[in-house]
Amino acid sequence: MALLEYIANGLVFSSIIVLASVGLSLVYSIADFANFAHGDTMTVGAYAALVAFGVIGGLGAEILGLPLGFFVALAVGIVVAAVVAILTHKLVYEPLDIDSIGLLITSIGVAFVYRAVIQLGFGAQVTEFDIQVLRPIDALLPLGVRMTLHDVAILVSAVVLVTALHVLLQYTDLGRKMRATADNPDLARVSGIRTDRIKLWTWLIGAGLAGAGGGFLGLYSSVSPRMGFNILLVVFAAVILGGIGSIYGAMLGGFLIGMIDQLTPLLTDVGIPIGTEYSYAIAFVIMVAVLLVRPNGIASEVGS
């Protein structure tokens, strides 16, 4: 496989990791705990999109090779993931008067509940979106890149969503309040900011990004009850590598972790006998090595 194809695959996979890691970092920066149910929130979004797509179908038109119905179904998945996360926050996390470690442990239990409900409803089998697989883009084949329009759609959609988040955080009143709450919740509260509402918006946006990441992950590979759980540690690695609580650090960390994962086969090509099954391990080794030099993450100085 050509180097350019590894890079292309890395860009697509990284875009999914970025969506998930930014959502996780956003929730952490304001809710102040590591949400271990985040991966299963991705799964919730993926299954909601899968069901919605099965109901509404393709709707005729196409965008970048994907049926318009997929994007409508993806929007449904985003909304369902956000609603489930908000309900969990209001019914489980908020009533508990415990510290961040207690909430972290609680989120592990919540993740098991999400996964169990999904498995009871849909079974344990792996399934896929009923979307025709496209042939690679002809113009890229001479470069040794077998990239389809579906891959381009995932990449472009992720860029659009991340750009929208950037605009929200930097140029809107809600974004300024979110950044103020993340920096100093007590000061934000005495300044008149309704931090309880900001937390709700944070859960909505963070879980929505997770739902989008789950939908794209299902399109990229497949949909299963453990899909979010299987990728959760990679998402955490991206957040830690970028700098815990830093939204822009999570973007950078997600990009790097995703690229490292997909570039691992290059080691075999140059004579180092390390298979793709060790790609996550290599990503974690690099993460630890970076943290030894920069304990707060590679982009810790970048604001959230």
UniProtKB/TrEMBL annotation:
MF terms (GO), sorted A to Z: L-isoleucine transmembrane transporter activity; L-leucine transmembrane transporter activity; L-phenylalanine transmembrane transporter activity; L-valine transmembrane transporter activity
Pfam families: BPD_transp_2
Record field: transmembrane: 6-31, 43-64, 70-89, 101-122, 152-169, 200-219, 231-257, 278-298
InterPro entries listed in its UniProt record: ABC_transp_permease, BCAA_transport_permease
Assigned keywords, A-Z: Amino-acid transport, Cell inner membrane, Cell membrane, Membrane, Transmembrane, Transmembrane helix, Transport
Location of the protein in the cell: Cell membrane
GO cellular component term, pick one: plasma membrane
Membrane disposition: Multi-pass membrane protein
UniProt key word Lipoprotein: no
Presence of the UniProt keyword Zinc-finger in the record: no
Any GO BP: L-isoleucine import across plasma membrane
Family: Belongs to the binding-protein-dependent transport system permease family. LivHM subfamily.
Protein name in the entry: Branched-chain amino acid ABC transporter permease
Protein's organism: Halomarina oriensis
